[in-house]
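Lab notebook, bench 4. Still working through the backlog of constructs that have no structural model yet. Next entry is a single chain of 95 residues. Request: give me the structure tokens for it.
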Amino acid sequence: MIGDRATHCASRRPNSETSRSLSRTGLSSGAIQTRIRYQGPLVAPITKGQEVAQLVITTGDTPPQIVPLVAGEDVGRAGFFGRIWLGLKSLFGMA
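Model written out:
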């Protein structure tokens, strides 16, 4: 399954390891669209630095810019009770 989510501006600064300079100079249209593209669901374990998604930035007059999104820390697999808890939260829309 391939996911595609619209994104919203966030106040967090990107990790310096993954940030790229994205210039807005010379754009004729002010519309910038961002989307996160991933294959999911993501399954643990995930290692720090592993690419988990791509940020696709498009404007009306430039080719899309693709920025890899990587895990900022290791994510281990949940144990038996952790998986049950996550399953229950998902069942009730809390996850």
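Notes after review: Helices lie at 80-91. Confidence is low (pLDDT under 50) at residues 6-21. Flag for follow-up if needed.
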